[in-house]
Amino acid sequence: MSEQNLHQRNQRTLRKLLIWAVAMFGFAFAMVPFYDVICDITGLNGKTSTTASTEGPSRVVEDRTVTVEFITQRGEGVNGDFTAATRRVKVHPGEITLVNFFVSNPKSSDIITQSIPSVSPGEAARYLHKTQCFCFDQQSLAAGERKKMPMIFYLDPELPRHINTLTLSYTIFDVTDRVAATNN
Amino acid sequence: MQSTLFHRAAVGLTSLMISGMAVASDWTERSDLNLRPGVTESSQEVYDLHTTILWIVTIIGLLVFGLILISMIRHRRSKNPTPSTFHENVFLEVLWTVVPFVILIAMAVPATRVLIELDDTSKAELTVKVTGHRWKWEYTYLTYEDDNNIGVSYMSNLATPIEQINNPVLEGGLFPYGTAKDAVGSDFPEKDKNYNLNADNPLVLPSGQKVRFLITSSDVIHSFWIPDFGGKKDAIPGFVNETWTIVPEGKEGTYYGQCAELCGKNHAFMPIEAKVVSQDEFKTWLAAKKEEAAAAPDLTPFADLDEAMELGEQIYAGTCAVCHGNNGQGGVGVAFAGSDFATNEEHLDEHIDVLINGRAAMPAFGAQLSPREIAAVVTYERNAWGNDTGDLIQPQDVQDHE
Amino acid sequence: MSTAAHDDHHHHAPKGLKRWLFSTNHKDIGTLYLWFSFAMFMTGGLLAMVIRTELLEPGMQFVDPEFFNQMTTVHGLAMVFGAVMPGFVGLANWMIPLMIGAPDMALPRMNNWSFWILPFAFLILLSSVFMSAFGAGHPAAPNFGWTFYAPLSTEYGPPSTDLFILSVHMMGISSIMGAINVIVTVFNLRAPGMTLMKMPLFVWTWLITAFLLIAVMPVLAGAVTMMLTDRHFGTSFFSAAGGGDPVLFQHIFWFFGHPEVYIMILPAFGIISAIIPTFARKPLFGYASMVYATASIALLSFVVWAHHMFTVGMPLAGTLFFMYMTMLISVPTGVKVFNWVATMWRGSMTFELPMKWAIAFVILFTCGGLSGLMLAITPVDFQYHDTYFVVAHFHYVLVSGAVFSMFAAAYYWLPKWSGVMPNKLLGELHFWSSLISVNLLFFPMHFVGLAGMPRRYADYALQFADYNFWISIGGFWFGLSQLLFLAVCILCAMKKGEKAPARSWESAEGLEWEVPSPAPFHTYDTPPVVK
Questions:
Q1: How far is residue C295 CA from its own chain's centroid?
Q2: Do strands A128-132 and B136-144 pair parallel, antiparallel, or not at all (unpaired)?
Q3: CA–CA separation, C191 vs C183, rounded Å?
Q4: What is the pLDDT of residues A156-175, one digit of tens each?
Q5: Residue C8 class from Cβ within 10 Å (0-12 exposed, 13-18 middle, 19+ buried)?
Q6: Which tens digit of pLDDT belongs to each residue from C109-148?
Q7: How confident is the model over C419-434, as a mean pLDDT?
Q8: Which of A:35-64 have CB within 8 Å of C?
Q9: What angle do CA B163, B169, B170 make, to 5 degrees?
Q10: Sign of the CA dihedral running B304, B309, B315, B316
Q11: Beta-carbon separation of A116 and B149 below 8 A
Q12: Residue of chain B with shortest Cα separation from A85
């Protein structure tokens, strides 16, 4: 094998390997949407859908009652009240239910908040359908404002039998700075 | 369970190692070098599983090491001058692929069974939300039996006094030592038996009832772990995790745990103290807590500066000193000693405001401390360490604060 | 084998600083890597000494908890990315061309680059430690553990996190270039007759390692890039507030992190597979099954990552999958250990220094492997996770595993590198002293871990005091023992010692023993023919 030939072969192998390395760098970023898909399917992290469900329930399962609990959590930097009007409700799968949440802003400036839902057990997340939720959008709160935020949901009639309690948690974050940073 | 061969061998080894040690712990109710069987059914199962696996790996290990040892003795050049030349044996190679595989299956079966049991959080009688903060735990009692409007919530801080922790031996030099600097002294107080494990407000749980923990965090990832209950679960900001426990009746007592996920500076200083009491006692305690929570805040004014200072000093040492230094010299948080902020009249309102509402890295204490306590701390910070402003803040001032 | 005769046609090695700065010679670059790795080993060790000093007794005596966290973080990074990985790359540079009969690495100029990036990467990282140490803790060096979990490293990371990100990027590029070089060399520069299945196992394990490196180092680069944009450019990959997920960080990190663990151990398997047959005077048992076992370990390493994060709350099915896969890895690993034992069996063994280290490796690595098997059992891992039991496990695998294998390699090939045999007395002292102290250092960690001491703790409850005292003593002892190795290396570098023949160990097999000792600057300009 001539020296020229060897050089070319080396360059070819090098190029292939470089392409592979770059592809793997891309793969790291591809893991982000991929992870979301996996989460949707398996309920890996208990995240619920971030968009309103457009279809209603197909039927109501009258003979089954499931307890749905609501807990609220303030992220760091949020010091107003953030509570659910009801701590827990008993519903039939397929039954449409409304729950109000209250949030207040004691600060002397306006803030923008974002609430992040999380369901436990995670497996139940994909069976929780929300037709309306304050968590789909950012909510702005004027200084001193107290706001009622409704959330309408139903449980999928196909909810696995072994799940009889479901906890829906909302963590509220103050995203004022984050929004300002993105806008600039 | 305590008398396995491994345990005895290990105890022997320990006493060998401890001999000659000046400071030895006498924590007899806690196992020193093996996993602890714990007090719950599931922790016992985990312990049994651990023991089984430990035996299996010990036997495999001894087998392999035994073979190596025999080979080293019998197949050294002085004993066996002409080496054999075999270098493959299909039977052997298949054997030591298949046999470990079978052993693995034997291990996987009980492991899977225990795992499925641990996963079942349904039908709990008490639900407690556990929130990790840097660097303390918050316990919120959500539902108990049919009562789903308890509204009892409190913070749990490390109770070990800071003088027991900070024992600096270096002054100046290469290493930074932050808050320890000014505490250099000749005699350090002796450490409590439950050093670094005691909390000021323990988690109180009833025995004989299933308790479900909903675990989350307000800042970074923490991990909620009480070894005697059989496992840990991460506290993740924005997400909830579930775990459960039943401490059987007759096992009432105090159990300790620690944060098990690196969460920053005081990761080692946010213990979990769980007090398990009988159901009757728990009901009495919960009722008292509910009453306390419902009662209007205590706005009794301080009689004089000394009274406020005394209360302020206690709260400062327990809650503020971690970040702001034992002597107000600062650290993670700002310094107070001699600072403009803590001495200038103009900043008084701001001072109260920051305590109630927080600012940047400073958490809000409005929900955690009563107006009386906040008034005491502000008074203390403005009068201690030579600040001597003479400002006496009354509970009503805090209550009136916008 | 007319290598020595050919030497005269070539220019001689350039002298002075230029020789090292601009070197494209695989032997010189290998030497640079090895010295760099040793320097980082001592630096990381020094940081570990700070940790062990603080943990000698309960209470905070020497450093601030904040500085303590910086020590654990940088200790981990320096050891993983500075000591173990470059150490193996150094060995690859020196030995792979010699073992496959190639004149040099295939891409010599890139080789120079991949080395010289490293010192600067570490200069950047360690500069933050210097600033912290001499600035009484401010500004802080990275303090979030070598696993840099978000959000501790993103929203809560100190400003030096950006230096850390830059430095990790540089280390990543260096490793990727090194790995590419290995693959191109092995694919294109093998001597005639050196078929893949004739290659020494060290070359095989390194080839597989190189593929792992190219697959996962870019993923690490992706992870730190996401951190960077989260910190400064308003994205929220890992922040719950912006719709991201901190757990996603752990998935990405461990997708890199688990193969990384094998990157740090596969070359060690190759070294041990070279040394044991030499001193047992018997061919390696099950060569083909060794190759297949290595490949299957590498493949399995991509589907076990979540066993590092059983406590984050995964669904049951996911947990079970990762538990079974992890347990499965012990099968090919077991095959390797059994093959080594079978190689020794009915051999005619002598116990020169490389063999001593190799046997210590097999035994202690097996200890680490067995505790790894215990950790795979998820329900029990809920107790073990993030305790000193884990610390004991991975130090058994990495110190008495990877590092011991590098000592074995050094004692084995030092005659080839320097032309003189390593000093026996110092070598024996180094071995026995390290062997005893490493166990005093890491074995009791199993006990404190099981008893419930979490890792990365600056201070601990009183019942852990006794063992921690002895662990610290073991730590100081082990650290000081390494100065003996420094002495051995310096003596060899100064050519002080018994002169080594070409075949420095009487029954050593392989092309590297066909060239004179020390190996001339240029070897195999005319490829040898392998029958």
A1: 19
A2: unpaired
A3: 15
A4: 888 888 888 888 888 888 88
A5: exposed
A6: 999 999 999 999 999 999 999 888 877 667 788 999 999 9
A7: 95
A8: 35, 39, 42-47, 50
A9: 120
A10: positive
A11: no
A12: B149
Measure the CA–CA gap between B59 and B62, rounded to whole angstroms.
Answer: 5
Q: What residues have CB less than 8 Å from B148, skipping those under 6 apart?
A: A87, A88, B142
Nearest to A28 among C214, C218, C234 (CB): C218
Task: Decide the pairing of beta strands B126-133 and B203-206.
Answer: unpaired
Inter-chain CB proximity B231 and C383 less than 8 Å: yes
Which residue ranges of chain A lie beneath pLDDT 50? Answer: none
Q: Which residues of C are catalytic?
A: 75, 104, 146, 174-175, 258, 260, 262, 273, 307-308, 333, 336, 455
Query: Whole-angstrom Cα distance, residue C368 to residue C397?
Result: 5
Q: In what order do the strands lie in the sheet containing A165-174?
A: A88-91, A66-74, A165-174, A111-120, A139-141
Average pLDDT over residues B3-22: 46
> Do A6 and A82 meet the contact criterion of CB atoms below 8 Å apart?
no
pLDDT at position B360, please? 65
From residue C105, alpha-carbon distances to C89, C94, C172, C179 in Å are 12, 9, 20, 11
d(Cα B237, Cα B216) in Å, to the nearest integer? 6
ipTM: 0.90
The number of residues in chain A equals 184
- Predicted confidence band of residue B268 (pLDDT cuts 50, 70, 90): very high
Mean of the per-residue pLDDT values of chain C: 91
Span C502-522, average pLDDT? 91
Of B119, B178, B258, the CB nearest to C66: B178
Residues across chain B = 402
Which residue is closest to A173 within chain B, CA to CA?
B238
Ranges B23-32, C182-191, C301-310, C464-473: which has the least confidence: B23-32
**C188 chain-A contacts, CB cut-off 8 A:** 6, 9-10, 13
Q: How many CB atoms are located within 10 Å of the residue B340 CB?
A: 8
Is B87 close to C283, i.e. CB distance below 8 A?
Answer: yes
With an 8 Å Cβ cutoff, is A175 touching chain C?
A: yes
SS3 A45: coil
In chain B, % of residues over pLDDT 70 = 85
pLDDT in tens, C47-87: 999 999 999 888 888 888 888 999 999 999 999 999 999 99
Strand order in the sheet with A82-84: A82-84, A97-104, A146-155, A128-132
pLDDT of residue B24: 30
Considering only residues B168 and B349, tell me which one the structure prediction assigns the higher pLDDT.
Answer: B349
Interface size, chain A vs chain C, as Cβ–Cβ contacts under 8 Å: 107
**How many contacts (CB atoms, under 8 Å) link B and C?**
345
Q: Is C317 helix (H, G, I), strand (E, B) or coil?
A: helix
CB C3 within 8 A of CB C525: yes
Among the residue ranges B397-401, C130-134, C275-279, the one predicted with the least confidence is B397-401
Evaluate whether B198 touches B273 at the Cβ level (below 8 Å): yes
Residues of C whose CB is below 8 A from A121: 315
Q: Which residue shows structure tokens 């760091």?
A: A76
Best probe of the C interface among B49, B114, B190, B261, by most C CBs < 10 A, is B261
| pLDDT higher than threshold 50 for residue B179 | no
Q: Note whether B272 and B369 are within 8 A (CB).
A: no
C253: left (phi over 0), alpha (psi -120 to 50) or beta: alpha
Q: What is the SS3 assignment for C499?
A: strand
Task: Name every chain C residue with its beta carbon within 8 A of the beta carbon of A44.
Answer: 247, 314-315, 318
Predicted local distance difference test score (pLDDT) of residue A145: 81
Report residue A113: phi and psi, to 5°. Answer: -120, 155
